[in-house]
Amino acid sequence: MYLFYIIFSALLCFLILKWLKRRRYCMDVKRLDGKTVLITGGNTGIGKETAVLLALRGARVIIACRDEEKARKAVREIKARSHNMNVLYMEVDLANMRSIREFSKTFLQKEKRLDILINNAGMPSVLDWTDDDFSMCFGVNHLGHFLLTNLLLPRLKESSPSRVINLTCSSYKYQKLDFQDLNYNLFPFFTYCRSKLANIYFTHELARMLEGKGVTAYAVHPGYVQSNWICHFSVLFRILVQVVMFMFFVSCEAGAQTVVYCAVSDEVLEHNGGYFTDCQPAQLRAFARDSGVAKKLWEASERLVKLA
Fold this sequence. Notes:
Elements: H1 2-20, E1 36-40, H2 45-55, E2 60-65, H3 68-82, E3 87-91, H4 97-110, E4 116-119, H5 136-158, E5 162-167, H6 188-209, E6 215-221, H7 235-248, H8 252-255, H9 257-264, E7 275-277, E8 280-281, H10 291-304
Parallel strand pairs: 1-2, 1-4, 2-3, 4-5, 5-6, 6-7
Antiparallel strand pairs: 7-8
Helix pairs in contact: 2-3, 4-5, 5-6, 6-10
Organism: Carassius auratus (Goldfish)
GO molecular function, one term: oxidoreductase activity
Keywords: Oxidoreductase
């Protein structure tokens, strides 16, 4: 009898966890032949899975990251899984504004198209500083992608209709921006939440500024995903989090589905500047929809990255 209860309880737990991890998959079959896709952080995790799925649709896929060895290994894997040889790597360090400018200059010289820009790379909740003295989370997750997107806008406009997809996180709801301390770097989780909120404001303002110019923008929460973001932490922390991720987090392939959905589906066009999760638009908290804050952040970001 005890054995029966144990088996029944285990099966029940398995089914509950399976239900909690359920996710929609992108069912749009649109091809991307002749299109060029740029994915930051495309050498691992959600970025790599997104690269595979878009390469399978015939896109020319460029993964942008800082680790050449990992990038070349990822390129070989993406080519093998997608049977698409039009996959390549370009080096960029999003924690270094000079690197971003050099990358953008090279990209504009070499690439004639940019149909889809996926700002996927990101730093988890770590207390560190970029080469330009920005907090690592805010500097990489927001300012790095803000500068990159702005520098590549000429090519995006020339390739219209084109799209910009910014990966964010539902944890944005736990913090608000403090314009007196945008470089906040005190509690790791809070710095991460603020950077993800900045991604949402950036998407909103980018969509507003490019309205009618052939470029649309979307913010995507991919879900809580079993990726290698824990590599930045201690061994003990990684062991503990691995257990939690196995139980509650979804696979990178499942996490990439909403990114792919926003990259290919025509259904998203009526939600320009919107926030998506699980392959559908989702409602943001009221403070995250504040157009005034979004505009103020844009202007502040321009000054910080020296675009203004």
